[in-house]
Amino acid sequence: METTYTGFYARFDTPSKKDAAVLLGADNLVGDLFDVEFVTEDGTAVAWIVNRFGHRVAFLDADTTRRLRVLHARNWMIKALLSFVAFTDSPEPGEYWGEVAILCFSPEHEQAFTTFAGNVAQRLMEGIRPEVDLGEQGIKQILDSNGTWSPSKTVPLPTKKPGTVIMKGRRKMSERLIEQGRKGNKGCYIVSWIFILAVVALALFGLKTCGVF
């Protein structure tokens, strides 16, 4: 039984393509930290991931929900970090899904594991999936370094089925700039909009050159 920490990658699903649209926007970026909320639906508990704006954006499967409820009952802290968002076109009408890195830990070590979660988030932003399912030695290194240690091993993306496209797997430059703007860096916020407008202008110029209009 886990005594201090456990971590793993878990699949999430969305209720519908319409509900999944929010995952593709700037409010849910790769590396973002999500809370996990348990909701009873038709008499069954379901674990939902909740973004920083308080919106439920996707749900976890029954096995993951049961595992997390046990840890929640022990008053452990449960955090999820967005790893990627994918779309699979079959069966019709297709589905949006993805994975989160789930980090669960005892609150007495909150500072160390919060720092560790931040390091994991940074690597996810770069499209790198660090190993989070750690043994005793890895957990000890986190505690000894107060969270600054980072695992060298990585985890590959799950095997893609035919018709599957990764919609989000890292943070784009425009997303990084927008995020800096949200944190109060007005210069980055302005630059981000200039960048976006420049891309739109370039696209329009290309269409005009091709004689579209």
Strand order of the largest sheet: 1-4-3-2-5-6
Kindly report the average pLDDT value.
88
Shape: globular
The helical percent reads 25-40%
Number of domains: 2
Number of helical elements: 6
Sheet with the most strands, sense and barrel status: 6 strands, antiparallel, barrel
Distance between the amino and carboxyl termini = 65 Å
The radius of gyration is: 19 Å
Proportion of β residues? 25-35%
Unreliable residue stretches: none
Helix-strand string: EHEEEHEEHHEHH
- How would you classify the helix and strand content by structural class? alpha+beta
Total strand count, please? 7
Keywords: Membrane, Transmembrane, Transmembrane helix
Transmembrane segments: 187-207
Protein architecture, described:
The protein is of the alpha+beta class and 213 residues long. It folds into 2 domains: 5-171, no CATH class; 172-213. The protein is 35% helix and 27% strand. It has 6 helices and 7 strands, in the order E-H-E-E-E-H-E-E-H-H-E-H-H. The protein has helices at residues 17-20, 62-73, 110-125, 136-144, 173-182, 186-209, and strands at 5-13, 33-41, 44-50, 56-60, 77-88, 95-105, 164-168. The protein has a 6-stranded antiparallel β-barrel with strand order 1-4-3-2-5-6. A hairpin with a 6-residue loop joins strand 5 and strand 6. Helix 5 (173-182) runs antiparallel to helix 6 (186-209). The longest helix is centred in the C-terminal third of the chain and has 24 residues, at 186-209. The radius of gyration is 19 Å and the shape is globular. The N and C termini lie far apart (65 Å). The mean pLDDT is 88.
